[in-house]
């Protein structure tokens, strides 16, 4: 089994989130299927703890979004109402064996549900 993990020196920082090289490659491969689109991070009320992360590939940012121009292939947007919940979050893409998963290392989280579906902030 091979495990890829976050290395602090390999990030692209923005005003709100940091993306590791692995996360950037993952998102670039997703938007390559729909040229000109962006990745948008938002949150929704969910689960037993409060909020869940929502990632979408959309044609353009929504008014008020924070836009991070990560590379020529990737623009990453954060919804205005999600920004206080995700500020300083590190997003990593980790491969564990055959599976790949996005990890949100959010320093604002004070509680998470047992299944990992939702989180709450202070």
Topology:
Layout: E1 11-13, E2 17-20, H1 21-31, E3 38-46, E4 50-58, E5 66-69, E6 75-78, H2 83-86, E7 89-96, E8 99-105, E9 109-112, E10 119-121
Parallel strand pairs: 2-7, 3-6
Antiparallel strand pairs: 1-2, 3-4, 5-6, 7-8, 9-10
Describe the model.
The protein has 122 residues and is mainly beta. Helix content is 12%, strand content 45%. It has helices at 21-31, 83-86; strands at residues 11-13, 17-20, 38-46, 50-58, 66-69, 75-78, 89-96, 99-105, 109-112, 119-121. A four-stranded mixed sheet has the order 1-2-7-8. Residues 1-12 have low confidence and may be disordered.
In short, what is this structure?
The protein is built from 2 helices and 10 strands. It is mainly beta. Strands 1-2-7-8 form a 4-stranded mixed β-sheet. It has a 4-stranded mixed β-sheet with strand order 4-3-6-5. A two-stranded antiparallel sheet has the order 9-10.
Share in helix: 10-25%
- Could you state the order of secondary-structure elements as H and E? EEHEEEEHEEEE
The neighbouring-strand order within the major sheet is 1-2-7-8
What about the largest sheet? 4 strands, mixed
Could you list the spans in which at least 5 consecutive residues all have pLDDT below 50? 1-12
Average pLDDT figure: 84
Count of separate DSSP helical elements = 2
Strand residue percentage: over 45%
Shape: globular
Main structural class:
mainly beta
Q: Cα distance, first to last residue?
A: 36 Å
């Amino acid at each position: 089994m091979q495990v890829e993990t976050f290395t602090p020196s390999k990030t692209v920082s923005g005003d709100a989130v940091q993306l590791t090289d692995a996360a950037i490659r993952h998102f670039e491969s997703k938007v390559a299927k729909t040229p000109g689109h962006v990745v948008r991070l938002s949150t929704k009320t969910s689960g037993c703890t409060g909020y869940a992360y929502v990632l979408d590939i959309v044609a353009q940012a929504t008014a008020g979004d924070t836009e991070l121009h990560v590379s020529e292939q990737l623009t990453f947007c954060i919804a205005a109402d999600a920004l206080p919940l995700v500020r300083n979050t590190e997003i990593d893409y980790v491969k564990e064996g055959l599976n790949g998963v996005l990890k949100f290392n959010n320093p604002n989280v004070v509680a998470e549900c047992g299944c990992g579906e939702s989180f709450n902030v202070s």
